[in-house]
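Hi, does anyone understand the following?
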Amino acid sequence: MARYADDLSLAHMLADTADSLSMARFRALDLHVESKPDLTPVSDADTAVEKALRATLARARPRDGVLGEEYGASAAAAGPGNRQWVIDPIDGTKNFIRGVPIWATLIALMEGDQPVVGLVSAPALGRRWWAAAGHGAYAGRHTATATPIKVSGVHRLADASFCYSSLHGWEETGRLDGMLDIIRHSWRSRAYGDFYGYMLVAEGAVDAMVEPELSLWDLAALIPIVTEAGGTFTDLSGRPGPGNGSAVASNGRLHEDLLDRLG
């Protein structure tokens, strides 16, 4: 992992900072929550985490740009380059504000339009997942307890555990019939939602996870983890990467069947 070792170490340091700030506000009685212009919630924990991570990146990586959910894109202080850190300070804010422990900080490094480092830290679950391009995917509380992870070997939808976020988005995009077809033909279906379904795919606990509408900060950290674990990650058209704002993640063996049914 020599090429990205320093970047991955920095991602872990950023995650440690994020975990400390977010856990201090999780289930806090004075948690402050507002609605953004798109009517999605944002808490004081979201903004505090992103501000802290941006401050660290400005010092540690002045040649890299930053994109975050709460404060948008910032150019590199040392001038434009092809590297950008992508941050979702709390993925699963609705869970966070309701006291549900399934939420995480997502940290990615992109070179051009390709995510090359991804880290997902879910401190309320006591779990962290990470990967770097060409060097495998790992999970554990920290690097000292890391174990390699890999996707499942399930070949048929009839034997597959299928994961999704909700049905509303699929109805809005006109693909509800395809979703229901997959649910009817899969062995098991559950709506784990947000980052968690993708990490379960990477670990081989479930076999596929799909979402119809996502932003770059929702996707970038997930892609290296799923693909380095041996999985496939595309948009609904079958194009690899985060470019089209949708996600089909699988163990690879089920991928074409899923795309056909959702098409």
